[in-house]
Give the backbone structure.
Amino acid sequence: MLDHVEIQVADPEKSGAFYDVVLAPLGASRRIEHQQRIGYGPGRPEFWIGPVVGPAPPSRETHLGFAAPGRDAVDAFYAAAVAQGAPVLHQPKMWPQYHDSYYAAFVRDPDGNNVEAFCENPA
């Protein structure tokens, strides 16, 4: 249903450095930079970050769920985020309440958003 999405970040350079590292294990990379915006994807840009426009709105957490090709990629995402100093919300584990084979890890990005990598493949 979604073609692409963009979130606003306080510091595009800092957030870009974070997403460069944590999205790499998921097969996504920085694809384009345009007007202080950075687009990521495995091919064309599907996820974008851009600077806050206008007065800063009240802080609201956004939850971003990124599909991983396998559980090892979820683990690599998690390790990359922890190495960057990202606050951990949940270490990689099974979440059977979501799906029988739902494996995911959750961290916070530099703006406090809940960033998840997940895989639904059986072991």
